[in-house]
């Protein structure tokens, strides 16, 4: 009885904590509304004009002094950190992200704010310092103004509630960077910072119709970025950016890589800056493509998105090559083996505080390295620069469906398994014709039936296709990479989306400013005359 009573009291305290925090948030929102209201009006003509500006135009007007950071931040419903920027010297305006409001995913530490992962037990435990990414963004003039919702342990969330799709509130925004996808998609943020362990940047970008970029692990700092995976081994999460267009994502990544602050804060990062000559390289690419991995069927609208992006690449003068990723079913077995190697003890530890351990995981890491080698061999035999493939098998489903269709994550997890960078770019929407063709979608598996069921009645939902390129650090694929994410964007119909996966293998010696070798074990050795150090992580 004593144990049951103690458990009940603990649950009551957690519930009280959640209710108290939700009450505080509602009160804070009321105060913010009152402070921002001008004559009873929040969306004044001036603020509407600011919100309508393209992100790069907004940056230019902030830097030339035509717009004040406080006014811009007020237009995005916050102003906490902008005042200090206006009081700073004029040369501060030369910072690449001067005055730009940036939203931050909830699992990324912001000084003085909770990082809960959606867990009530983490309420009232504010971070004592900013994550390295947040510090680096602020050093480049950005104004982090809010944290965005995630599911509990990046899977579901009773603390802050459910995040819905800005285009259709009956559908999900995706996860686990769904708060970022929804806020950027709704116009509430220009640039957002997320993280991606199995598609957590790309899926929300696909569902919400925005641009998203997942970097190679080790390119952007993960200091102060919380992960649900114990030890983060095998399939490792990596930070990423979400934005309204490619240019603002480029600006954000370039600022992080050129500033130097991030490399000083996190010495484990190879100090490779942005290389503009790769970003501006305009040689024709060899573009591989596929719209079916022969394991999880892709809905008609998502396949059409790949076809439109492929045709746009061809029309732009690039070489198109059919490609089949190797043994995707085996890849999925590896993915599930890695994610479940501890029989769920890591998540259970987060939920109830018990210790966890993992043994099975080590037995699959060797097979993972072999699979990556096989993928790279297939890539190099086709002499590819980039790979175009489906963003996700289906459009945004209703909120109850993602946990029922987990195998659909194969489409995105494949490139987390290989540690390849990946990006999402707008191209198209679901059409009535796509819905009609959905009648022929296979139903040989219960999960396929659920995909067909959840994809119905979704005209106008965003659709994505995905390009990929295999060089994880000094990329030479003209932006299909973590260094220079200038995705070759096809002719766009306004409001339409497509996803591009940018891939890169974990091997090889590449000549650039600094020559490096990256063995599968993850040890970087620098062979350049300019560098004489190496880092292990």
From TrEMBL:
Stretches the record annotates as Disordered: 1-22, 454-484
Sequence ranges of Basic and acidic residues compositional bias: 10-22
One GO BP annotation of this record: fatty acid catabolic process
Keyword Ribonucleoprotein tagged: no
Domain of life of the source: Eukaryota
Record's keyword annotation contains Protein transport: no
Keywords from the named record: Hydrolase
Molecular function GO terms recorded: amidase activity; fatty acid amide hydrolase activity
Record-annotated Amidase domain positions: 77-352, 363-433
Classification via PANTHER family: FATTY ACID AMIDE HYDROLASE (PTHR45847)
Family classification: Belongs to the amidase family.
Name this polypeptide is given: Fatty acid amide hydrolase 1-like
Species name: Homarus americanus (American lobster)
